[in-house]
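ok, trying the design again with the full structure, not the truncated one.
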C-alpha cells in the first residue's frame, strides 16, 4: 500500500541555502504534488495490469473459439462416417468453416514458395503421401506420392472426375472433365485423331512453323517486350487457326481478351458476385459460346448449300466425326471440346515455352548443346524440302529432354481432381464415397527421392532414366491423359528449334 499522503511546511534550515522548513502533518485531503503523481502512477499500473489480464483472457477465449470452430467444422463433415470409418481417414487438417484450407493454399501460391502448402502437411503429419483437407468447398484427400497417384488415376471404377464447380461450369459440362466414363471414351475416340493424330499434327506443322518464324522476326524488331503476354498471343493465334482457320488479328485480339477473363475464373472460388473472377468468367464464357455457335451455324448453312472449305480445320473435323452407331457430336459437345482445348493449348503451352526459354538462357551450356542438335537437324534437311516435317521433330531427342525437364519443374497443371464413387482405400487410408481427391503432380515431379536435386534444371537426368508409371505426370495418366499432349509438345518444339538457332 502507498504511504499516507502528507505535505511539509518550511521550518528547518537547509544545508544548502539556509532556508528554514517546518514539518507539520496536515489533513489527508490535502495532497502534495509528488504524492498525487505517485498515486496516479500506481493507479495506472493497476489499470494496465488489469488491461493486460483482459487481453490475455481475450486471446485465450479467441483461441478456444477458433479451435472449437475448426473442430466443429471437421466433425460436421466426418460425423456421418461413424467411429470406425472416421478412424481410417488419413491425418490432416480441414481448416476453417466454409473456406477450409483455401486461405493457406492461396497464400502459398501467391508467394515465392508454392510448395510450402504441402510442406506444412508433411511437417505436421510426416511424409505419408496422403492427407485430408477441405479444398474448393469440399472435403478432400490430397495424394502426393507416385504409387498412390497411379492407383487413383488408373482406377476408373472407383474414381470419376471431381473438378471444382467453377472449372466444370466454365470449361463445359460436356467437355472431358464433366462427363461419365462411357461418354468420355466415346468423345475421346471421336476427337483423338482430329487433334492429336499423326496426320493432323503433320497438317498443323506448316502453319505452326510459319507463325513461329514471323513471330520471332516481329519480336526482334520491337525492342523490349512482355514475354509471357506475347507468347500467350502467339499460342492463341496458333490454336485459333487450328480450330477455326481464323487469322483475323482484330477478331483474335478480341477473343483473346474474352478468353483471358474466362481463364482467370477457372481456378477461382465459385462466387457469382460482380467484381469476382468467377462472375467475369461466366460472362466471358457466354461470349465465347456465342462466337463458336455463330461459326457452327454458318458452316452448317454452307454445308446445306453443298459448299465445302478447301482446307478443313478442327471444327470441320468435329462436325464430321461419328461413332460406330452413326452418332455425331452435337453443338454443345463441339463447343465445350473447343473451349477445353483452347484452355489446354493456349495457357499451358505459353507458360511452358516461356520457362523453357528462360532455363535455356540461364544455362549457356544447355543452350549450346540444344543449339548443336538443332543445327545438325537443319543441315540434314534435303535442299528440296521446305521447312520441318514430323521426321525432323522426332530427331529432336535432346530438345525433347529440355521440354520434359521444363514440364517436370514448372508444369502449370500442378494438380488434378477426382471424386470417389465408392469407399476406397489408398495407401491403407480410407477415401470416403463422395469425397474429392486431389492428385498433386507438382509434389510427384519434385520428389527428391525420384529426382535428386529436384529444382535444378538438368535435361541430362533423362539420359539413362525412364520414370516408372506415376512418377512423371506432366499430362496426367490413364484414360484421362491430356488429349492434346502431342499438339502442345509440337508447338513448343518448333518454337524452341527456331529460337535457339537464331535468337536470344
Amino acid at each position: 500500500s502507498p504511504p499516507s499522503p502528507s505535505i511539509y511546511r518550511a521550518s528547518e534550515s537547509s544545508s544548502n541555502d539556509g532556508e528554514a522548513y517546518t514539518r507539520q502533518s496536515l489533513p489527508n485531503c490535502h495532497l502534495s504534488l509528488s504524492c498525487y503523481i505517485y498515486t496516479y502512477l500506481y493507479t495506472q499500473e493497476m489499470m494496465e495490469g488489469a488491461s493486460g489480464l483482459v487481453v490475455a483472457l481475450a486471446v485465450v477465449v479467441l483461441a478456444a473459439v477458433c479451435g472449437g470452430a475448426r473442430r466443429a467444422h471437421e466433425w460436421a463433415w466426418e460425423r456421418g462416417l461413424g467411429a470406425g470409418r472416421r478412424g481410417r481417414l488419413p491425418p490432416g487438417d480441414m481448416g476453417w468453416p466454409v473456406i477450409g484450407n483455401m486461405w493457406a493454399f492461396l497464400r502459398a501460391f501467391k508467394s515465392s514458395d508454392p510448395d510450402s502448402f504441402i510442406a506444412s502437411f508433411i511437417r505436421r503429419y510426416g511424409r505419408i503421401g496422403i492427407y485430408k483437407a477441405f479444398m474448393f468447398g469440399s472435403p478432400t484427400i490430397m495424394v502426393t506420392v507416385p504409387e498412390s497417384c497411379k492407383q487413383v488415376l488408373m482406377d476408373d471404377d472407383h474414381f470419376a472426375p471431381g473438378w471444382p464447380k467453377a472449372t466444370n461450369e466454365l470449361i463445359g459440362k460436356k467437355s472431358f472433365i464433366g462427363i461419365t466414363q462411357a461418354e468420355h471414351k466415346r468423345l475421346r475416340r471421336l476427337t483423338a485423331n482430329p487433334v492429336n493424330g499423326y496426320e493432323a499434327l503433320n497438317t498443323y506443322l506448316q502453319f505452326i512453323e510459319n507463325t513461329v518464324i514471323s513471330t520471332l522476326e516481329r519480336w526482334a524488331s520491337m525492342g523490349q517486350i512482355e514475354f509471357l503476354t506475347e507468347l500467350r498471343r502467339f499460342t492463341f493465334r496458333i490454336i485459333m487457326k487450328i480450330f477455326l482457320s481464323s487469322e483475323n488479328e482484330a477478331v483474335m485480339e478480341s477473343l483473346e481478351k474474352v478468353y483471358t477473363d474466362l481463364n482467370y475464373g477457372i481456378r477461382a472460388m465459385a462466387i457469382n458476385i460482380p467484381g469476382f473472377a468467377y462472375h467475369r468468367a461466366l460472362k466471358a464464357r457466354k461470349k465465347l459460346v456465342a462466337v463458336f455457335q455463330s461459326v457452327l451455324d454458318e458452316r452448317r448453312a454452307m454445308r446445306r448449300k453443298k459448299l465445302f472449305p478447301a482446307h478443313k480445320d478442327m471444327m470441320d473435323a468435329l462436325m464430321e466425326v461419328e461413332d460406330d452407331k452413326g452418332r455425331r457430336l452435337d453443338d454443345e459437345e463441339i463447343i465445350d471440346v473447343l473451349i477445353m482445348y483452347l484452355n489446354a493449348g493456349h495457357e499451358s503451352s505459353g507458360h511452358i515455352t516461356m520457362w523453357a526459354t528462360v532455363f535455356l538462357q540461364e544455362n549457356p551450356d544447355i543452350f549450346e548443346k540444344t543449339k548443336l542438335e538443332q543445327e545438325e537437324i537443319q543441315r540434314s534437311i534435303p535442299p528440296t524440302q521446305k521447312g520441318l516435317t514430323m521426321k525432323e521433330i522426332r530427331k529432336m531427342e535432346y530438345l525433347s529432354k529440355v521440354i520434359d525437364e521444363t514440364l517436370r519443374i514448372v508444369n502449370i497443371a500442378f494438380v488434378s481432381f477426382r471424386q470417389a464413387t465408392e469407399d476406397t482405400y489408398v495407401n491403407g487410408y480410407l477415401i470416403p464415397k463422395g469425397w474429392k481427391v486431389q492428385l498433386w503432380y507438382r509434389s510427384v515431379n519434385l520428389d527428391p527421392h525420384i529426382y535428386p536435386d529436384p529444382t535444378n534444371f538438368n535435361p541430362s537426368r533423362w539420359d539413362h532414366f525412364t520414370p516408372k508409371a506415376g512418377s512423371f505426370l506432366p499430362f496426367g495418366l490413364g484414360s484421362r491423359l491430356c488429349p492434346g499432349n502431342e499438339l502442345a509438345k509440337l508447338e513448343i518444339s518448333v518454337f524452341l528449334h527456331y529460337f535457339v538457332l537464331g535468337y536470344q
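Keeping the full-length input from now on. The domain at 165-502 is CATH 1.10.630.10 (Cytochrome p450).
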